[in-house]
């Protein structure tokens, strides 16, 4: 998989496409064609390579196909090849920022999408997500506690104080979990309204024993600071979940 990522990044046109999504996420093919001096087919070919490498994800919004930068593989490359040689503060340089204030005429458009493939069954992923003993091993030493029923509350707890809270909006084990999200103890989030996180879990269509986990964070127009924290944090959470389920170990530094 790393070879696919490095090959995808080797082409300057594909790097340009990633830069365009970095500047303004969730764009259509037409949006991405405009700045590039190539045919529509050429852009589609490059986007397909990026998607196969996991560097972008796509979602339907009505008749449109929207393209999103996927920070998780880049985060994993950082952990594998960069972090061992760098000071901890360098982590901030690898954060991929969304354009939070960009106007759009598409209703209910997801804004931040991350995806990862994990060598585990969907049931194992679901247990890792909902079992406090497991969650605490990859969610910044915090456990998510809930009765896991629709409209039941949950909290993100570090053993001393509550870090976040919300409501279970929809639940379909082991395939889907939708939760509202509000930070409690992070500076700058006091006036943020609850946003929404959706977990989509399903078996890979082609790889036996592999589960695709997609996390969508949206409805955060009035929660800019929350969006910033989750944009930086969710790729680390997903990488930690993958490491735990595939090796039984925690990410270095957790």
From TrEMBL:
<comment type="similarity">
    <text>Belongs to the AHA1 family.</text>
</comment>
<dbReference type="GO" id="GO:0003677">
    <property type="term" value="F:DNA binding"/>
</dbReference>
<dbReference type="InterPro" id="IPR013538">
    <property type="entry name" value="ASHA1/2-like_C"/>
</dbReference>
<dbReference type="GO" id="GO:0003700">
    <property type="term" value="F:DNA-binding transcription factor activity"/>
</dbReference>
<dbReference type="Pfam" id="PF08327">
    <property type="entry name" value="AHSA1"/>
</dbReference>
<dbReference type="InterPro" id="IPR001845">
    <property type="entry name" value="HTH_ArsR_DNA-bd_dom"/>
</dbReference>
<dbReference type="Pfam" id="PF12840">
    <property type="entry name" value="HTH_20"/>
</dbReference>
<dbReference type="InterPro" id="IPR036390">
    <property type="entry name" value="WH_DNA-bd_sf"/>
</dbReference>
<keyword id="KW-0238">DNA-binding</keyword>
<feature type="domain" description="HTH arsR-type">
    <location>
        <begin position="1"/>
        <end position="89"/>
    </location>
</feature>
<dbReference type="InterPro" id="IPR011991">
    <property type="entry name" value="ArsR-like_HTH"/>
</dbReference>
<protein>
    <submittedName>
        <fullName>Metalloregulator ArsR/SmtB family transcription factor</fullName>
    </submittedName>
</protein>
<dbReference type="InterPro" id="IPR023393">
    <property type="entry name" value="START-like_dom_sf"/>
</dbReference>
<dbReference type="InterPro" id="IPR036388">
    <property type="entry name" value="WH-like_DNA-bd_sf"/>
</dbReference>
